[in-house]
C-alpha cells in the first residue's frame, strides 16, 4: 500500500450523537468525498476534489458509490465461543453448561487457543469489524493467543482473562488469588502495548465468590485506566440466582458495586432487566451498557430498552456477543437492534444503528478519540460497504430515495458480501 493513499467514494461522517441530534444532521453521507490515509492514520478528510488538489500525485483508490465507514467496533464478544456459535435450544445457564464451558475447557491447549484466535480475527475482519472487546477463558494462554494475533495484525483490541472460582466445572475455575495474580500479570504484559488493551474480566456474579469479586475490584482500583467487563441482568432466572447467591445485595448491580466493580470504565453486557436504582447508578457512574441483540433473542433473554436508556443519558455500545449471539456480523447485529426497537415501538434510524456499531461502541470502550469516526488524526480502521451487494439488496436500492434508505437495506439484509474492503491501521486486510 503506497503511503500516503487517497481513498475516494461516499464517506460516512460522524458529527454528533444521533440520539441527541436529529440523525441525518448528526451523521452525513457525503458523495465524492475522500480520506488521506498516512502512517496508519487519517491525515485529512474532505471533498475528493480538494484532497486531489492538496495531495497531488497521491495514489488514489476509487471506491465510487461504495460507502467508506469507520470500521465496526464490537463491544462484547467471547472469541473462545467461535466454534459453538448457533448451538440449539438452551437458555442462558443451560447454554453455558451444555455448550460454552465444555468448549472453553479446550483452551487449556495453547495451540487450540491460537488457532481459534486467528480464525476469529479472520472472520470478524471479513465482516468489517476492526476492534472487538473480548472475554477469553480462565487460561492465561487464551489471552496471550488473542493479544499476540491482534498485535501481529496491527489491530486495536481489548481482551481479558475470564475469572471464575465457582459454579463452573472443575478444570474451568481459578481462585480469588490466582484470578488476581494471573490477571495482573497479563495486564502488565499486554496493557498499552501497541494497540492492545487489557480488560479486567470477572465473568458474572454467579461464577465468582465474593472474595474473587473483591480481588477483581482491588485490581481495578490499582489500574483504574483499564476497562472492566462483565455481564448484568441478562435473564430473569439468572437474576433470581444472583439474589440467592448474594442475599445482602440490593440488586444485581450491587453485587458488583459493593466489591468495587462499578466505575466509569465498566462495561456491562446485556443489561436488559434493570431496576430503577440500577439505571440511576449506572448513569451517575458513567458506566457503559452493551446491547447484544442477536444474543438476547437467540438465548431468549429479553428486549433491551434502547430508547428509554438513551433518553436518560446512558452510554451504550453494540455487540454481537459471539457465540451467544448468532452472528459475527455487525450489520446483522444492527438489523437485530432495529427489530428489537420495533418490538418496543421505537424504531431506530439507520444513522443511529451505524453510530451504535461505530462511534457508540468506541465511546463505550473509551476509545472514541481514536476509532469509531472518520476524523483527522483518527486511526485508519475502515470498512468499505457495497450498498448493492446482492440482487435482493440492489433491487431495493433501485427504489431508494436517498442514501440513508440505501444504507438501511444493507443494514437489514447485508452480510460479509457487502464488505468491499476492511482496512486496519491503514492497510487492507
Ligand atoms: N453470562 C455469563 N457468561 C456468559 C456468556 O458466555 N454468554 C452470555 N451471553 N452470557 C453470559
Ligand atoms: Zn457475554
From TrEMBL:
<dbReference type="InterPro" id="IPR051607">
    <property type="entry name" value="Metallo-dep_hydrolases"/>
</dbReference>
<keyword id="KW-0862">Zinc</keyword>
<dbReference type="InterPro" id="IPR011059">
    <property type="entry name" value="Metal-dep_hydrolase_composite"/>
</dbReference>
<keyword id="KW-0378">Hydrolase</keyword>
<comment type="similarity">
    <text>Belongs to the metallo-dependent hydrolases superfamily. ATZ/TRZ family.</text>
</comment>
<keyword id="KW-0479">Metal-binding</keyword>
<feature type="domain" description="Amidohydrolase-related">
    <location>
        <begin position="68"/>
        <end position="429"/>
    </location>
</feature>
<protein>
    <recommendedName>
        <fullName>Guanine deaminase</fullName>
        <ecNumber>3.5.4.3</ecNumber>
    </recommendedName>
</protein>
<comment type="function">
    <text>Catalyzes the hydrolytic deamination of guanine, producing xanthine and ammonia.</text>
</comment>
<dbReference type="InterPro" id="IPR032466">
    <property type="entry name" value="Metal_Hydrolase"/>
</dbReference>
<dbReference type="InterPro" id="IPR014311">
    <property type="entry name" value="Guanine_deaminase"/>
</dbReference>
<comment type="pathway">
    <text>Purine metabolism; guanine degradation; xanthine from guanine: step 1/1.</text>
</comment>
<dbReference type="InterPro" id="IPR006680">
    <property type="entry name" value="Amidohydro-rel"/>
</dbReference>
<dbReference type="GO" id="GO:0008270">
    <property type="term" value="F:zinc ion binding"/>
</dbReference>
<dbReference type="Pfam" id="PF01979">
    <property type="entry name" value="Amidohydro_1"/>
</dbReference>
<dbReference type="GO" id="GO:0006147">
    <property type="term" value="P:guanine catabolic process"/>
</dbReference>
<dbReference type="GO" id="GO:0005829">
    <property type="term" value="C:cytosol"/>
</dbReference>
<dbReference type="GO" id="GO:0008892">
    <property type="term" value="F:guanine deaminase activity"/>
</dbReference>
Amino acid at each position: 500500500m503506497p503511503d500516503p493513499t487517497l481513498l475516494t467514494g461516499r464517506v460516512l461522517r460522524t458529527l454528533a450523537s444521533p440520539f441527541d441530534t436529529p440523525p441525518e444532521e448528526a451523521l452525513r453521507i457525503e458523495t465524492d468525498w475522500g480520506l488521506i490515509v498516512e502512517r496508519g492514520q487519517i491525515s485529512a478528510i474532505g471533498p475528493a476534489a480538494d484532497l486531489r488538489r492538496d495531495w497531488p500525485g497521491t495514489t488514489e483508490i476509487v471506491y465510487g458509490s461504495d460507502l467508506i465507514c469507520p470500521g465496526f467496533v464490537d463491544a462484547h464478544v467471547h472469541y473462545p465461543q467461535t466454534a459453538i456459535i448457533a448451538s440449539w435450544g438452551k437458555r442462558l445457564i443451560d447454554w453455558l453448561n451444555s455448550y460454552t464451558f465444555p468448549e472453553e475447557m479446550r483452551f487449556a491447549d495453547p495451540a487450540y487457543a491460537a488457532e481459534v484466535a486467528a480464525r476469529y480475527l479472520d472472520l470478524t475482519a471479513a465482516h468489517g469489524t476492526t476492534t472487538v472487546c473480548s472475554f477469553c477463558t480462565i487460561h492465561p494462554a487464551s489471552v496471550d493467543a488473542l493479544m499476540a494475533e491482534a498485535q501481529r495484525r496491527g489491530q486495536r483490541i481489548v481482551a481479558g482473562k475470564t475469572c471464575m472460582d465457582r459454579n463452573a466445572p472443575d478444570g474451568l475455575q481459578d481462585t480469588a488469588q490466582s484470578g488476581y495474580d494471573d490477571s495482573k500479570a497479563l495486564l502488565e504484559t499486554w496493557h498499552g502495548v501497541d494497540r492492545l488493551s487489557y480488560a479486567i474480566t470477572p465473568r458474572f456474579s454467579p461464577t465468582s465468590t465474593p472474595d474473587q469479586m473483591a480481588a477483581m475490584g482491588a485490581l481495578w482500583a490499582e489500574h483504574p485506566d483499564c476497562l472492566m467487563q462483565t455481564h448484568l441482568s441478562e435473564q430473569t432466572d439468572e437474576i433470581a440466582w444472583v439474589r440467592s447467591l448474594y442475599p445482602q445485595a440490593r440488586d444485581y448491580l450491587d453485587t458488583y458495586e459493593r466489591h468495587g466493580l462499578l466505575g466509569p470504565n465498566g462495561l456491562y453486557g446485556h443489561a436488559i432487566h434493570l431496576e430503577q436504582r440500577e439505571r440511576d447508578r449506572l448513569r451517575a457512574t458513567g458506566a457503559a451498557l452493551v446491547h447484544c441483540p442477536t444474543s438476547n433473542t437467540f438465548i431468549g433473554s429479553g428486549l433491551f430498552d434502547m430508547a428509554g436508556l438513551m433518553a436518560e443519558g446512558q452510554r451504550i455500545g453494540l455487540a454481537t456477543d459471539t457465540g451467544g449471539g448468532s452472528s459475527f456480523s455487525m450489520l446483522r447485529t444492527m438489523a437485530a437492534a432495529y427489530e428489537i426497537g420495533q418490538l418496543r415501538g421505537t424504531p431506530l434510524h439507520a444513522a443511529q444503528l451505524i453510530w451504535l456499531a461505530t462511534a457508540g461502541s468506541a465511546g463505550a470502550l473509551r476509545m472514541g478519540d481514536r476509532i469509531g469516526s472518520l476524523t483527522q488524526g483518527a486511526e485508519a480502521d475502515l470498512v468499505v460497504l457495497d450498498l448493492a451487494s446482492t440482487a435482493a439488496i440492489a433491487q431495493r436500492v433501485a427504489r431508494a430515495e436517498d442514501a440513508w434508505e440505501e444504507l438501511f437495506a444493507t443494514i437489514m439484509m447485508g452480510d460479509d458480501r457487502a464488505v468491499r474492503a476492511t482496512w486496519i491501521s491503514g492497510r487492507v486486510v
